[in-house]
């Protein structure tokens, strides 16, 4: 496994692999890797001949007062995990490599980014689109892998790829959870033992939402109220950013439960940790 810090090095190595006819798979990450990230790596190993992972805590996607400086970082551990998974190339750039002095060009998706996390984290998806577009241009992959954990992010990336004609296939893979249902996240390490104990109620509230949706007897607003109740009653100090029931394609609120796919998405602050989770429900 090669670790490259520089853009030119990545370009050179990928170019060689492509010349040999290899299919390039790419997983962008911010490091502090867990089984969720590794599930993407494993799928890429299966589908591609050459797997590239980037580890970069992207400053432009963090807002003022967010956790950029405390975000967990452990490159040595990440490197060992990726080596074991048979990754071919790790791109580990410095901030000054990705954003040299005078950097002034950004990529912005302006529709899907208005909803859900976009409302609460202004500029977040602009930072995500900018860094992913840059990474796509550097790595030049055939297939890129994202997690449904960040459902909105994956939808926005798909839209960006379509709108800006990146010749890249986007795969979105299921959420990997702890045994008790908590969605794996690098930010779970912020949780105190008590917070960690009650955090799975977030997923439990989504399961309840799914059950209520499938009964087809309740309005989305009634279901949102019930979800909030479960969160408030079981996660005492949670600060709810949102509980939304939306169309998975437009991310806009739905007014009534109809046939088709429905996304329930939540974002909650539990102490320092902003946790997000979601569930897709198919109504027949
Ligand atoms: P991050 O390092 O948080 O930027 O995540 C990198 C990629 O891993 C993103 O595409 C995430 O959606 C994905 N990911 C993070 N957590 C999970 C999880 N629990 N299950 C599946 N994918 C995940």
Query: Which regions have little confidence, pLDDT < 50, spanning 5+ residues?
Result: none
Q: What would the CATH topology of the largest domain be?
A: Rossmann fold
What's the total helix number? Answer: 10
Biggest beta-sheet profile: 6 strands, parallel
Sequence of secondary-structure elements: EHEHEHEHHHEHEHHHEEE
Q: If you compute it from the alpha carbons, what radius of gyration comes out, rounded to the nearest whole angstrom?
A: 19 Å
Could you say which structural class the secondary elements and strand pairing correspond to?
Answer: alpha/beta
Residues in β-strands, percent: 15-25%
Helix content: 25-40%
Query: Architecture of the largest domain in CATH?
Result: 3-Layer(aba) Sandwich
Q: Number of DSSP strands?
A: 9
Mean pLDDT: 98
End-to-end C-alpha gap: 47 Å
How many structurally independent domains?
Answer: 2
Q: Give the class-level CATH name of the largest domain.
A: Alpha Beta
């Amino acid at each position: 496994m090669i670790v490259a810090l520089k853009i030119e090095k990545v370009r050179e190595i990928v170019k060689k692999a492509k010349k040999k006819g290899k299919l390039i798979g790419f997983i962008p990450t911010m490091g502090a890797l867990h089984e969720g990230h590794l599930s993407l790596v494993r799928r890429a190993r299966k589908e591609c001949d050459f797997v590239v992972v980037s580890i970069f805590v992207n400053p432009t996607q963090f807002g003022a007062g967010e956790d950029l400086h405390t975000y967990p970082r452990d490159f040595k551990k990440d490197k060992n995990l990726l080596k074991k998974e048979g990754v071919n190339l790790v791109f580990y750039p410095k901030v000054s490599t990705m954003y040299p002095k005078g950097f002034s060009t950004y990529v912005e998706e302006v529709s899907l980014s208005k909803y859900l996390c976009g409302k609460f984290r202004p500029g977040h998806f602009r930072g995500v689109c900018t860094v992913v577009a840059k990474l796509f241009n550097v790595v030049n992959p055939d297939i890129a892998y994202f997690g449904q954990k960040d459902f909105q992010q994956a939808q926005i990336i798909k839209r960006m790829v379509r709108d800006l004609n990146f010749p890249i296939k986007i795969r979105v893979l299921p959420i990997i959870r702890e045994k008790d249902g908590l969605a794996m996240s690098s930010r779970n390490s912020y949780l105190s033992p008590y917070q960690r104990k009650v955090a799975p109620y977030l997923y439990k509230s989504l399961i309840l939402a799914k059950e209520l949706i499938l009964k087809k007897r309740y309005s989305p607003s009634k279901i949102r109220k019930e979800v909030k109740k479960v969160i408030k009653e079981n996660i005492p100090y949670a600060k709810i950013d949102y509980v939304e029931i939306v169309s998975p394609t437009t991310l806009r609120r739905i007014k009534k439960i109809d046939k088709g796919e429905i996304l329930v998405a939540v974002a909650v602050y539990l102490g320092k940790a902003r946790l997000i989770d979601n569930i897709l429900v198919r109504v027949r």
